[in-house]
Amino acid sequence: MAELPEITKISTQMRDTLRGKTIQTVSILQEKCVNIPADEFQTQIAGAKVADVRNKGKWIVTSLSNGEQVLLSLGMGADILFFENEANLLEKYQIKLRFTDGSGYTARFWWFGKFALAAADTLDIGIDPFDERFTPEYFANLLKGKKTQIKAFLMDQKNVGGIGNMYMHDILFGARLHPQRKISDMSGDDIERLYKSMVDVLNLSRYKGAFMYENDFFGQKGTYGMDDFLVGYKENQPCPVCGEKIINRKTGNTSTFICPACQKL
Fold it and tell me: Model pTM?
């Protein structure tokens, strides 16, 4: 599932490619993906120009010249693909947005994708680690007074936008924190290590063009691969720090790969 590095890459490509284009039509083949009737969606956005595209956590927000905003969520996976003309259009998609110059993009959702017409401020999402406001001081204040487990807190999009389970394994490993460690039991040094690990892991993926199994806006894959994970998805392999075997520990509704020696509860 696409997370912050992948979403940031796609939204940046969309902004650079689509800004200034005028929307001609939107074709909605699966209405459960949208929040209003298809004909109303068409009426609301046809003739509007793309003013900007940005991400808010895992959502991609397209701002239009008429004041409307299109909110796009890849859900549990999706291909959001640009086309120069309909001759190179994919056969399968749920949404197709076409511009007056003949170009456009399609959205093929695997599971739980959304294409909504709504204001971005209706999304209750925390700022993400790529945001310049996400400073060490901001992060420390965000954790202040909290008593929940650290992984559950970070996975809640209301607290921190954009982080999912894929990068979480190495983020916690880099900070030497067990996923069930309570925030109230964390020291200032723990918080500093966690902030640095979060930024380092996510920036490495961004530098490498995002995850190797995720398509960008032009159908290209990133180069962040399995060799880049330190403990993630490496059960029974030796910890890169101490040599202890990595284990897969169930944590709530998800599982986490950890080193039982480096990440003691």
Answer: 0.94
Q: pLDDT tens, 66-78?
A: 999 999 999 888 9
Residue 63 near residue 69 (C-beta atoms within 8 A): yes
Q: Are 9 and 206 in contact (CB under 8 A)?
A: yes
Task: Inform me whether the pLDDT recorded for 90 exceeds 80.
Answer: no
Q: Identify the residue whose tokens are 């960008």.
A: 216
- How far apart are alpha carbons 32 and 184 in whole angstroms? 41
Q: What is the C-alpha separation between 253 and 149, in angstroms, rounded?
A: 13
- State the SS3 of 212-264: CCCECCCCCECCECHHHCCCCCCCCCECCCCCCECEEEEECCEEEEECCCCCC
Tokens of 133: 């406001």
| Residue 5 Ramachandran class (φ > 0 left, ψ -120 to 50 alpha, else beta) | alpha
Residue 128 pLDDT exceeds 80: yes
Q: How far apart are CA 174 and CA 194, in angstroms?
A: 7
Cα separation, 158 vs 126, whole angstroms: 5
Q: Let me know if 74 is exposed, middle or buried by CB neighbors in 10 A (0-12, 13-18, 19+).
A: buried
Distance from C-alpha of 187 to C-alpha of 181, rounded to nearest angstrom: 11
Question: What are 213-258's pLDDT values in tens digits?
Answer: 999 999 999 999 999 999 999 999 999 999 999 999 998 889 999 9
Q: How far is it, in rounded angstroms, from Cα 242 to Cα 261?
A: 8
